[in-house]
Design brief:
heterodimer; A: alpha+beta; 2 domains; 11 strands; disordered N terminus; B: 5 helices; 36% helix; globular
Chain lengths: 320, 116
């Protein structure tokens, strides 16, 4: 099949497709989706006995030792058992805790977390965010629970969909309106375009005119990248009706100082990293407006930014 | 070598000394757009064009897919990660790589008759 010159071994897309839903989930889900949070922590000045009570009370097997926002170490159930055995259960945590704790980041995929468990052989990892703040604790059990929970959710969705299909006409209406709601995280450049991709698929399946489909996809793509580059994080809701796509993007700040200026082509406040990746052309908002049939933006300094866009749909001529 | 208005990928590869890095079977392009700014491509490139850029991040695939761009040319010897290649294959987008600069590649395409 591949007659064109190729210089490098290439991973075939076909191989990637033959994977189970659980395998997909471990790539999609992040550590923050599975971890226990907020974490139960103790002070270096707490005794092992206090920590043992904490473990019993919350049914946990490891307690990070923290002073202020600094992670100093961890006391695990194994440490407690040893302490009981050797009779130093009343020692302070700082004397007995394991120091130099290896942590994992909350944005790691679960597949990476599983690899870390295998590499280090620990029973749990303290989870830190990108600013090195302790945000939770992850055990292998947390990963299993999270996967089971997600599988159950998918199964329920599938059952609900089937039930609705059996319900005849009602199913038509259900299938006609699809709502995609997605959290968008600041700085998560790797996820840019995920929502837009799903929208494109749905519109293609529905036989929507390619021009209109592209406009809708551009609006959503720019909304996603705007939140990633400029905001503190936010949410995008895309409601796909038979006659229109309605996009609502909202972030948690910090707001746009001068909306009129932001609507001008070429105006950008993007930093160095996004610019190096090809973002920050200063055309995001103008592009969104140009591609929308209805466009509204509401923002001011220090406030949330709301963007509302509607794209009216038409099918390819001749398609049913 | 002269290229047709709907240029076939193997002919394009020969014209600009490029290699194909996806397992694309066949594709044609008409016209070419050059930009390293994603929003600019979303705004101004036409569906069906070849897009030449030095960006090799996965967002290039997202933008190309959004805009129905069938083939992306990475210039200046740049190569994307394997994950980007997989994603492009899933989207049915051909990825090409050439050691030429964007300017040189554009010059050769123009010379070969791609004037859009």
């Amino acid at each position: 099949m591949n007659t064109a010159p190729t210089t490098e071994p290439v991973l075939s897309a076909g191989d990637a497709r033959k994977i189970t839903i659980a395998q997909v989930l471990v790539y999609e889900l992040r550590v923050r989706d599975a971890m226990s949070h907020p974490p139960f922590t103790a002070l270096p000045s707490d005794s092992l006995r206090t920590i043992q009570k904490l473990m019993k009370q919350h049914k946990i097997s490891g307690v990070p030792i923290q002073l202020g926002s600094k992670l100093l170490g961890i006391v695990t159930i194994e440490d407690i058992i040893t302490a009981l055995d050797k009779g130093h259960i009343d020692d302070l945590a700082e004397k007995r805790m394991a120091r130099g704790v290896i942590t994992i980041r909350d944005h790691f995929s679960l597949v990476r977390a599983v690899a870390e468990f295998e590499r280090h052989g620990f029973g749990r990892f303290p989870v830190v965010d990108s600013a090195d703040r302790l945000v939770g604790v992850l055990t292998r059990g947390d990963i299993t629970n999270c996967l089971m929970h997600q599988l159950e959710k998918r199964a329920e969705e599938a059952i609900a969909f089937e039930a609705a299909s059996l319900a005849g006409r009602a199913s038509d209406e259900l299938a006609q309106r699809i709502v995609i709601r997605a959290q968008v995280r600041t700085g998560d450049y790797d996820s840019a375009g995920k929502v837009s991709q799903r929208l494109r698929q749905i519109l293609r399946e529905r036989g929507i005119d390619p021009d209109v489909r592209r406009r809708a996809a551009i609006v959503v793509y720019e909304a996603e990248t705007n939140i990633i580059i400029h905001s503190l994080g936010g949410e995008i809701t895309v409601a796909i009706d038979p006659d229109k796509v309605v996009v609502d993007a909202v972030d948690t700040g910090p707001g746009i100082e001068d909306v009129n200026q932001a609507m001008q082509e070429g105006w950008s406040t993007a930093g160095r990293l996004p610019r190096e990746l090809g973002f920050g052309a200063g055309m995001g908002l103008p592009n969104m407006k140009k591609c929308s049939d209805v466009f509204e933006i509401k923002s001011s300094n220090g406030q949330k930014t709301f963007v509302h866009s509607e794209i009216f749909l038409r099918k390819v001529t001749g398609a049913s | 070598m002269k290229l047709e208005a709907n240029a076939k990928l193997p002919d394009v590869l020969l014209t600009i000394q490029a290699t194909l890095i996806t397992n694309t079977v066949d594709a044609t392009v008409h016209g070419c757009y050059i930009s390293d700014l994603l929003s600019d491509v979303l705004a101004h490139a036409q569906p069906g064009m070849l897009w030449a850029t030095v960006q090799v991040h996965r967002n290039v695939v997202s933008v190309a897919a959004t805009k129905d761009i069938p083939a992306v040319l990475f210039t200046c010897g740049r190569k994307p990660d394997a994950s980007v290649i997989v994603e492009a294959e899933e989207e049915g987008i051909a990825l090409l790589a050439t050691p030429l600069t964007t300017y040189e590649a554009a010059g050769k395409l123009w010379q070969a008759g791609i004037h859009e």
